[in-house]
Amino acid sequence: MIALTVRALVPIVLLIALGYALKRSVITDEGFWSEAERLSYRVLLPALFLHSLATADTDDLPAGALAGVLITATVAVAALVIACKPLMRLDGDAFTSVFQGSIRFNNYIGVTIAAGLFGTKGVAFAAVCNAAIVPTVNVLCVLVFARFGTARLHFAGIVKQLVTNPLILACIGGILLQTLDLSVPPGIEPALQALGAASMPLGLLCIGAALRFGAARSWVAPILTSSSVKFALMPAATFLAAQLFGLGSHALIIAVLFQALPTASSSYIMARQLGGDAPLMAGITATQTVLGIAAVPLVVALVPA
Questions:
Q1: How far apart are CA 93 and CA 150, in angstroms?
Q2: Span of the secretion signal (predicted)?
Q3: Low-confidence residues of the chain, pLDDT below 50?
Q4: Which residue in 46, 65, 98, 118 has the fewest CB atoms around it within 10 Å?
Q5: Most distant pair of Cα atoms in the chain: their distance
């Protein structure tokens, strides 16, 4: 497990470091990075979500129970984080970053580890996890941005954000294709796959470019808060939900694994596009990625076999 986690996380750390170096030595134009973020949010990430959800193979799996566990735990922890906001003494923008760092997950790492643990069955489990958590966290995050982000929105504005958000629309499209048993047209699927594959490296480079270590001291409390929720509270809530749904064996391990993953590059992209604290989000993402090397194997090792 430790070797699998290291192999999955080290390339991510290196890409973040490369982005930091590129921004300060080679590609210093701020306009380039802002347009790269827009490309990732509008095109690459939606392609990733649409393709992965539409092509997921979920046959012969406890998909309903696994999805129920993940959605229940995610919503419960999200509600608790919101309820505890007054105790955090953070402004709205910073809170959106803590919220994302608490509930979002890096599905690339999850698929890599799940495949290493259980082979093709692990990949199928990972597909169910993506189908359950990706739409859930994106809807929750849009609602939190609407309430606490820079652009405070009323009901009509929130509805508009939900029905026009490219990540949510991609999730809905992928789930509809999966539910209706429709395949992506042969000429389109490779293009979607290629675009989706480009989302992770570009997103991680943007995270590295956004890092501002001069503000690191003010990040300590938000990083500790989000990381405590991500690596302790979220897996614990998932384990408890699994007992309610009767989920066991390999499905339980995968559920806890996905809920203990560090936050994803899409967190930073969303923070930039929806008015959150992007530098803090970059700091949370980079820190959790490094912490995940130790935290993810430890959390999964604590799950009863």
A1: 6
A2: none
A3: none
A4: 118
A5: 54
| CA 79 from centroid of its chain's CA atoms | 17
Q: By the 8 A CB rule, do 75 and 133 touch?
A: no
Q: Which two tokens stand for residue 302?
A: 């604590």
Q: What is the pTM of this model?
A: 0.84
Q: At what angle do helices 249-259 and 234-245 cross, to 10 degrees?
A: 150
Nearest-CA neighbor of 206 among 269, 267, 264?
A: 269
Q: Can you read off the two tokens belonging to residue 172?
A: 């809905």
CATH number at residue 90: 1.20.1530.20
Tally Cβ neighbours within 10 Å of residue 75: 17
Spatial contact of 135 and 175, defined as CB atoms under 8 Å apart: yes
Q: Do 74 and 137 form a contact (C-beta atoms < 8 A)?
A: yes
Per-residue pLDDT, 93: 92
pLDDT at position 225, please? 96
Structural contact between residues 194 and 76, judged by C-beta atoms closer than 8 angstroms: no
Give the range of the structural domain holding residue 208, as residue numbers without chain letter.
2-301
Q: From residue 245, how far is each of 68, 124, 200, 241 by CA, in Å?
A: 7, 19, 33, 6
Counted domains in the chain: 1
Residue with tokens 């929750």: 140
Answer yes or no: are the C-beta atoms of 284 and 98 closer than 8 Å.
yes
Output the pLDDT for position 195: 93
Structure tokens at 288: 């959790």
The length of the chain is 305
CB 239 within 8 A of CB 302: no
38 in Cβ contact with 119 (< 8 Å): no
Run of H or E including 286:
helix 278-301
pLDDT at 74: 97
Which tokens go with 188? Answer: 């389109």
